[in-house]
Amino acid sequence: AQRVTQPEKLLSVFKGAPVELKCNYSYSGSPELFWYVQYSRQRLQLLLRHISRESIKGFTADLNKGETSFHLKKPFAQEEDSAMYYCALSRYNTDKLIFGTGTRLQVFP
Amino acid sequence: EAGVTQFPSHSVIEKGQTVTLRCDPISGHDNLYWYRRVMGKEIKFLLHFVKESKQDESGMPNNRFLAERTGGTYSTLKVQPAELEDSGVYFCASSQDTGGPPVLTFGAGSRLTVL
């Protein structure tokens, strides 16, 4: 069965420090991977997806099929990055998203 | 453009009662999804509508849950009778059919508390 694992429930860093939110998945086929973010008192929203190979708000994520990982990285964290981050997977050609349990990122001033 | 709207934002009911949650997707979005987050656990897929048809309802927990999308516009999710373990936040999302990976727009969620 497909599964998404986010091993850290909470990640705390100081402003300006690098950030890496870990995401590992299990799926034997070709996955499509996403990062969703929920800021305080806001809705869950798409941050980025692996097929776009884009950088959003300074965040990047690279799909590593060998390690079955899709870690989210940012070189210099900002206070406004504090939020709940969810990694999600969908199987090729399906619409169903499988989410991880989420990681709360706290960026201190 | 109006986003995905969910009602009510919070519902508190007693075990055995019935609750109906409503979702209005973004106009023109054929795809509508229901997800649920139970405290401390991951956000789990419940079902997916394409227009008025149920494309995938593999995540529905049991027959106490009934989802409808008459006319392919808004959707309702009814829980009858509610149990304690149904407490959680129910999210609705919608997307356009782009032929590629889904890009979901989520509503604010409906928090259900069953006492």
Task: Tell me what the structure shows.
The complex is a heterodimer of chains A (109) and B (115). The termini of chain A are far apart. Chain A is an all-beta fold and 109 residues long. Chain A has no helices and eleven strands. In chain A, strand 9 and strand 10 form a beta hairpin. Chain A has strands spanning 3-5, 10-14, 19-21, 24-26, 31-38, 45-49, 60-61, 72-74, 83-91, 98-99, 103-108. The mean pLDDT of chain A is 92. Helix content of chain A is 0%, strand content 45%. In chain A, strands 2, 5, 6, 9, 10 and 11 form a six-stranded mixed beta sheet that branches. In chain A, strands 3-8-7 form a three-stranded antiparallel beta sheet, with no helix packed on it. Chain B is mainly β. Helix content of chain B is 0%, strand content 49%. In chain B, strands 2, 4, 5, 6, 9, 10 and 11 form a seven-stranded mixed beta sheet that branches. In chain B, strand 5 and strand 6 (53-56) form a beta hairpin. Chain A binds chain B through residues 4, 32, 34, 43-46, 49, 51, 86, 90, 94-102, and chain B through 3-4, 31, 33, 35, 40-45, 48, 55-56, 58-59, 91, 95, 100-109.
Outline of the structure:
Chain A is an all-beta fold and 109 residues long. In chain A, 0% of the residues lie in helices and 45% in strands. Chain B is built from no helices and 11 strands.
Task: Compile the SSE list and pairings.
The complex is a heterodimer of chains A (109) and B (115).
Chain A (H helix, E strand, L loop, with lengths): L2 E3 L4 E5 L4 E3 L2 E3 L4 E8 L6 E5 L10 E2 L10 E3 L8 E9 L6 E2 L3 E6 L1
Parallel strand pairs in A: 2-11
Antiparallel strand pairs in A: 1-4, 3-8, 5-6, 5-9, 7-8, 9-10, 9-11
Chain B lengths: L4 E3 L2 E4 L5 E6 L6 E7 L5 E8 L2 E4 L8 E4 L6 E5 L8 E8 L9 E2 L3 E5 L1
